[in-house]
Amino acid sequence: MVIRLFPFLLSGKRTHFLPGSVIGSLSIAQETGSGEMLEAQFKDYTSSEQALICRDLVLDRMTRMAADAVSVEIDVETRIGVLEDDLLQIKQQIRSRDFSAANEEVRQCCERLQLPFNPDFHAEFARLVCTTLRQLLKLEIDALEESEDPLVKGWDLLQRHDIRVVDGQLPRFFTVSEALEIAIEGQTEEMKKKLRTTAGLVIAYAGDIPIDRLGDVTKQLMVWMSRLPKLHGKCHGNNRFLKEREMPKKQEEIDEADQEDASLYALYASRSDISDAQKRAELAELLTIRVTHTNLERHLDRLHQILRTAAENAGFNGKTKLMTYSALSKAIKADCERRKLENPLFLRVTQPKLRLRWAGGRIRKLLTSGVYSGCTSVNRLNPGRHIYRNSRYWVPLVLITMGCRPSEVLRLKRGDLIFRDEVFCLQLCWSADQEGKTVESTRIVPVPQILIDLGFVDWIKSFARPQDLLFPEVHTAKNTSPQGVFSKRMLSVRKKLGIANYNEDLYALRKSLSSALWDGGVDIETRQMIIGHVSDTIIGRHYTEANMKNLKDLLDRARHGIVVGFSKPHKHPVVADCTLVSGKPARPEILLDSSGHLGALRLIDEETGKTIVAVILKNVDLPAHPAWRGAKVLSSAVAAEAVADTIGRYQISLPDSDELKSALEHFMAMAATTSDYKPAEDDEDDVVDQAA
Fold it and tell me: What local confidence, expressed as pLDDT, does residue 34 receive?
């Protein structure tokens, strides 16, 4: 690697190095696949880097000239004499094609700009530096002899190097940390945190460089960031009891994730019993999850925000847009393609948030859990006789039946229960301490009948004062985000119940309600009004207010399958059952063929662990038949029919993997399109009697 990155180390020529943080950033860039670019860079500076070095040279000299022009300690005649000697010398050197004077000037500029210095830069660039130095010497002599302002005298030179004088002052190079301090002024705490995170990643990659250099490093920076684990910066092991563990460096987190993935790639590459498509499908569930492309776009947006703020408030006149979304996509795609050439199984695994409506089985499992049927304590779901009607109990019910945002429900007070148009309603985001996500968040939504039947209104009435919070347990002194507290507590519940699907989080229950309303024939304008989204029309946005009684009738059209009963021991209504789904739970086990389609399928009873049905498709490219006892070898049409008949009697949990889910859904479509199919004689069952 030393020979590759620094070939001049072997030449015996004089070299200069920057601080370790900068050299560290070079090694990082090399590891991201930008080694070719760096190798070319050490042979010569890029055109943008040459312009930046010359700009720094002019800025540095002109800043000193401006200071000396008003200093009473400067002996003008002596200074002019020294400058004339220097000018004569540089002229003679240029005429004799000796550009060695550029070496020291470039070294000093590189040190200020945190650029790697290479003394073997091209002679053409050396001549440019020398001629710029000659112009600066002549300018300073003329300004001193004529007692003129060097900024006025050197206007043309400043314009040539894109340097703007603002209020009689020359601009300066702002580092990333300095630009950050300008950008966070006046921002919310949440935005300050995001801007600091983005700036911290830039500094971790390239050092605290001048923001003028961001344009040259952004592409490699984004590729490097795409390799960060999704949970980077969060797996340090510190907690409220232990806060002394050192935060791991970003590159260390990338290296650790890469090593773990390399072991998995090696393991699956050695397997010959499954197809490459199956290997990739299984690897997608095991490899380290990296930051999403949307996350990269947000970091890019914040970099642009930092640059714009520096331009607006501090006189920065460089580029304020570093890269487009399209260019970012191309850079990440090119890096992935390069890695696939090195490793055919390579996958960049991300976990974008694609909120889906909750499956009926998950809703049923939650509403029939110990939270609603009774448990031993407030923090445990073991069957018991206590029902705690707190945030864990009511908030999911409100989200399912009213479609509110979790943050809106958690800030409700007793005074938010009102009676309008002869129905009970909740006013959401109504007071100053209940700030909503959008302007449309401030709204009134009727309480659906199912919540009234469950005693929600009576429970609210039991609070003593109008200003009493309905869910005070999530408003802790150390945390200003009740939604964060509640989400963590509910995540524990969902994990215990086995329903912690990433794309079916609590917020996604809003989509479940919208889907249920759509099933009930409720129009889109009304659905937008209920869940707090802006209307698509001017009439809907500004001139429509729903009659709460009519809106409640529409809200009650949604079918949630909740059966209400009355518990005498608890003396209040309870959720007796949820009829959204029926049948015993079963999970599929799928093997893909070489083309990525379903090649074999087994359904397993989740309660007993026994195989319900197992089929292997005929004439598919599987490296080996799975060792499933009693598996039947059938044509795809007959296999789909056989499995479809069985699935109707079970509650099937679809796989989380998109590849496996798509393959199963396509396979099941075959049953619907071949219902009149009569099996041919050669489709008689071939039974593979192997040990499970």
Answer: 38
Do 587 and 603 contact (CB within 8 A), yes or no? yes
Least confident of 293-307, 320-334, 521-535: 521-535
Query: Residue 235's pLDDT is what?
Result: 65
C-alpha dihedral over 100, 106, 111, 115, to 10 degrees? Answer: -120
Could you count the other beta carbons within 10 Å of the beta carbon of residue 189? 9
Per DSSP bridges, beta strands 650-652 and 584-592 are parallel
Four-CA torsion 552, 553, 559, 563, nearest 10 degrees? 80
**132/163 Cα distance (integer angstroms):** 14
Q: 449-458 burial, b if ≥16 CB within 10 A, otherwise e? A: bbbbebbbee
In this prediction, residue 307 has a pLDDT band, given cuts at 50, 70 and 90, of: very high
As a whole number of angstroms, the distance between CA 152 and CA 322 comes to 32
The pair phi, psi for residue 462, each rounded to 5°, is -70, -15
Q: How far is CA 584 from the centre of its chain?
A: 37
Give me the half-sphere count of Cα atoms (radius 13 Å) on the Cβ side of residue 603.
23
**CA distances (Å), origin 510, targets 474, 484, 528, 530, 547:** 21, 18, 11, 10, 22
Strands (E), 454-549: none
pLDDT value of residue 684: 45
Contact between 601 and 589 under an 8 Å Cβ cutoff? The reply is yes
**Residue range 414-424: average pLDDT?**
91
Tell which residue, 463, 484, 457, 481, has the closest CA to residue 394. Answer: 457
Per-residue model confidence as pLDDT tens digits over 225-280 = 999 999 887 765 555 555 666 677 899 999 999 999 999 999 999 999 999 999 99
Contact 163, 171 (CB under 8 A): yes
Q: What is the reported pLDDT for 485?
A: 87
Cα–Cα distance measured from residue 564 to residue 555, given in angstroms and rounded to the nearest whole number: 18
> For the whole model, what pTM was predicted?
0.70
Closest listed residue to residue 559, CA positions, set 581, 528, 576, 531: 581
Q: Sheet harboring 686-689: ordered strands across?
A: 650-652, 584-592, 598-605, 611-617, 629-634, 686-689
Q: Residue 210, class by beta-carbon neighbours within 10 Å (0-12 exposed, 13-18 middle, 19+ buried)? A: buried
Q: What pLDDT score was predicted for residue 690?
A: 42
Token pair for residue 143? 């300004």
With contact defined as beta carbons under 8 Å apart, do 473 and 390 qualify? Answer: yes
What are the distances in angstroms from CA 281 to CA 269, 275, 657?
Answer: 13, 10, 7
Here the tokens at position 289 are 């999850």
The residue among 381 and 276 whose pLDDT is bigger is 276
What is the band of 308 on the pLDDT scale with cuts at 50, 70, 90?
very high
**Residue 25, SS3?**
helix
